[in-house]
Amino acid sequence: MKKADIGLWGLAVMGENLILNMESKDFTVACYNRTVSKVDNFIKGRAKGKKIIGCKSVEEFINTLKKPRKVMIMVKAGRPVDLVIEQLLPLLEKGDIVIDGGNSHFPDTIRRTEYVESKSMLYIGTGVSGGEEGALKGPSIMPGGSPKAWPVVKPIFQAICAKTDDGEPCCEWVGENGAGHFVKMVHNGIEYGDMQMICETYHILKQGLGLTNQQMHEIFAKWNDGPLNSYLIEITRDILAYKDENGNETIDLILDTAGQKGTGKWTAIAALDLGQPLTLIGEAVFARCLSALKDERVTASKLISGPSEQFDGDKNAFVEDLQQALYASKIVSYAQGYQLMHAAAATHNWNLNYGGIALMWRGGCIIRSAFLGKIKEAFDNNSRLENLLLDPFFKDTVEKAQPAWRRVVTTAVNLGIPTPAISASLAFYDGYRHERLPANLLQAQRDYFGAHTYERVDKPRGEFFHTNWTGHGGSTAASTYNV
User: CB count, 10 Å around CB of 163?
Assistant: First the structure.
């Protein structure tokens, strides 16, 4: 019997489509699922007549694979991944490769890489983005883990991934142990931010300007032909025009409570752990939490009042302002995401290719957009770039957008329309561009009530001082540290 080039465990939507993608690129694929009936249904259905081998047991699955064996796991993140690894390892040999293609939390991937390597095998934790369509036609793939595994899986991954317009694969090695899943987590966090900012823009257009879904559809269609060209703008355009079988505009029938699977929350927690001001993505996560309080909001809407004024300006001009505000906010979202990756790389000793990451996101993934090419150019021009806002292109773009950005936030506040992500992006920009922030007063307060000490502008960094503010305290200071 012909041996398979790779095996995939898990026949949910992503698993099935990845298998079909691999087979379409002339790879023979073995498949297995804990519920064996799913294997039968797949082989008799979508996989019928293709170079796909259905396996009824783990032993058969492993014995079907060419050496070194490559086993890709597509199961729910968390304990299910560990359980599959424990079933695989006794059947694998030195140099075989275990690949986790789910949305695993990067600390788990760090732990699993070390564990699998201790058994003389190799491990890859890879982000796979693009949803059902991406998995089938070409996703963005972000692998990390055991460096020795990359040359073995590279031909398969780069064959099945999305390609840029120039034909470059949207898949490259990210870094050691958990780097791949960390980059995928940041991708998902940026996705949260992008989606929230688009929703805030929709809210302003609908409630503030009183536009119809058709009018908004036309606006998003126009924006998708300009600097905002992206997958999320494109699907928003289509959603706003969609009608159900009864002719109803579907968007108006959807309950306004957002779900989440946790990757945005993980991104925000990682930012807090690393001391990075990921304000926009944090607000996007909290906006989903607020949306979930539907019953409370219904009650509050009857008891708490807000502004009653209506928009009375030039609607066409304001739509242009919204486009610029959304673009500037999007730049801040990526700037914060890259800041977080910089901090994580320093902490975990990862050698991340920041321009390469932008290239991986150019196609196949949910946050793919034309503007990612500009991020790659920024890091190609300066591989040590500290923040995207310092790159000449992004600096000039945001500065030109500032007046429109400020008008949008001011107008939203005056109309009582919440814009937590767009407002947070502007606040971050203003904070980042200030040479001096009011944290001097904050340090004085901390020293006053807790003797936490402070540094002085007229003394070298690293020297700490304490003031007896009341005259009643002593000269003893608390130790200085940052959590």
Answer: 15
